[in-house]
Design goal:
The protein is mostly beta strands. The strands form four sheets. Strands 9-8-7-6-14-15 form a six-stranded antiparallel sheet, with no helix packed on it. The chain has a five-stranded antiparallel sheet with strand order 1-2-3-13-10, with no helix packed on it. Strand 2 and strand 3 form a beta hairpin. The radius of gyration is 21 Å and the shape is globular. It starts with a helix and ends with a helix. The N terminus is likely disordered.
Length: about 260
């Protein structure tokens, strides 16, 4: 009964464990399984190898973003995102013109109304050049900046959040990818996250554009027009829920009387 009520209240719940293992997405590049199980959406752009090899070189493998995936709880509380990247969580020191440039992962950008403005972002690095807070903090109306301009490409005009209004917390795991540890001489990592729809201000269905990059914007990966659903307001489920509970009580009492 409790499970029935939970299902009615939240809709279809996606079964993703936020642990950095992408088996529950149906993904394992070591077995050439690059694309997530439907209805999840996938973008795959692994440089030099794999399907849809990126035609633009990221310069070094550590700047390569191999893939991104997204799914949701239909009429439920969360959006789920996974990214495969070669950028370490702590960043990477790159020798450039006699000096050293510290490269980092970009923050996740979300455009929920398809107007080309990324009005939400999720913090994915603790680098002091970015907005203060912790990894997983969700920000509304962020000021986006490009952190690394030296020895950098211009595939995107921004990489990270400088400031914004914090709206909630995403659960984020950023760790080495055990199933596919190396690619083109560099280690691989998974960034997996669960974002509350409430932190994104979602109150109606719509389409979101997702963007992930690195601080030099040498690589950019996007998923466009992923359809998301809202969490039903209590009033929309209260009557069906009450009716279900009433039917359960009625048939339970009837069964008990017939068994006497």
């Amino acid at each position: 009964m409790g499970m029935l009520i939970f299902t009615m209240m939240t809709g279809a719940v996606a079964a993703y464990t936020i642990d950095g293992d992408l088996d529950d997405w149906g993904v394992n590049p070591a077995n050439n399984s690059w694309y997530a199980t439907s209805p999840a959406r996938s973008a795959v752009e692994n440089w030099r190898a794999g399907p849809n090899s990126d035609s633009i070189s990221p310069g070094i493998e550590e700047c390569d973003i191999e893939a991104m995936y997204v799914d949701e709880d239909e009429n439920g509380p969360y959006i789920y995102i996974a990214i495969i990247t070669s950028m370490p969580p702590e960043g990477f020191d790159y020798s450039c013109g006699g000096s050293t440039v510290h490269l980092i992962t970009g923050d996740l950008a979300l455009d929920l109304d398809n107007d080309g403005i990324y009005e939400y972002g999720v913090k994915l690095t603790e680098d002091s050049r970015t907005v203060s807070g912790k990894i997983g903090d969700v920000f509304r109306d962020p000021t986006w900046v490009k952190i690394t301009t030296e020895c950098a490409q211009s595939q995107l005009s921004f990489s990270n959040i400088k400031n914004g209004t914090r709206t909630g917390d995403a659960t984020v795991v950023y760790q080495g990818y055990a199933d596919w540890p190396w690619d083109n001489g560099a280690a691989n990592y998974v960034i997996e996250m669960r974002i509350p729809k409430s932190a994104l201000g979602i109150s109606a269905q719509g389409d979101v554009d997702l963007c992930a990059t690195v601080s030099c914007t040498n690589d950019v990966i996007m998923i466009r027009d992923f359809h998301y659903t809202p969490i039903p307001e209590f009033a929309t489920v209260a009557l069906p829920l009450a009716a279900t509970i009433g039917l359960f009580i009625f048939f339970d009492r009837k069964r008990r009387r017939e068994g006497e």
